[in-house]
Amino acid sequence: MEDFSIESLEPPILFENIENKHAEYITVNLFNTQPATAANYGIFFTARHGCEVLYVSEVHGTLGTDAGAVTLQVEKLTGTQAKGAGTVMLNTGFNLKSTINTVQTRETTDFVKNTTTLNISDRLALRLTGVPTAVADLQVTIYLKPLGRGHYR
After folding, report:
1. Chain segment 35-69, per-residue pLDDT in tens
2. Which of 67, 83, 106, 113 has the CB geometry, 3.0–4.6 Å to 125, for a possible disulfide?
3. In Å, what is the CA distance from 22 to each residue of 25, 72, 131, 138, 144?
4. What's residue 46's pLDDT?
5. What is the β-pairing status of strands 136-146 and 24-30?
6. Cα–Cα distance, 130 to 133 (Å, whole number)
7. Taking a C-beta distance cutoff of 8 angstroms, is the pair 147, 76 a contact?
């Protein structure tokens, strides 16, 4: 019979020591014609622990038709900042007049310096520039990892 005493057990594998973990993700969907209304863009995430944004993707089913530029930014809000008063995270926002059903991605090098780390209670919001006439079926996905929890891919 095997010895199952505490001394004979292997130490537990800590979550921090597991490599190549998948990051967490948050998806924001504005269905049908919801993206054509500027008031539908806002705060969608509050950090409950420290984390880091790894990359962001965007896709839309119908492109904007307004004469001016129509772009989408991810905004970091800290403390009591209201939406629209935070720090934009992307060097270049997503073009909502680009080819439909084509995923646009922003990775670490596409972020404004020192904006990817979120502290407890920091928030993320979508910030629109321009008039989103005709934009439809918008999806934004944010990939993030908790801070101090080991290696992620």
Report:
1. 999 999 999 999 999 999 999 999 999 999 999 99
2. 83
3. 9, 26, 36, 24, 9
4. 97
5. antiparallel
6. 9
7. no
Task: Record the pTM.
Answer: 0.85
CB 38 within 8 A of CB 127: no
Question: 123: which strand partners?
Answer: 46, 77
Task: Write the single-letter amino acid at 70.
Answer: V
Per-residue burial over 105-121, b if 16 or more Cβ lie within 10 Å, else e, is ebeeeebeeebbebeee
Question: Which residue has tokens 């979550």?
Answer: 15
**Count of CB atoms situated within 10 Å of the CB of 83:** 14
Where are the extended beta strands (E) located within 9-120?
A: 24-30, 43-46, 51-62, 71-77, 87-88, 94-95, 104-106, 117-118
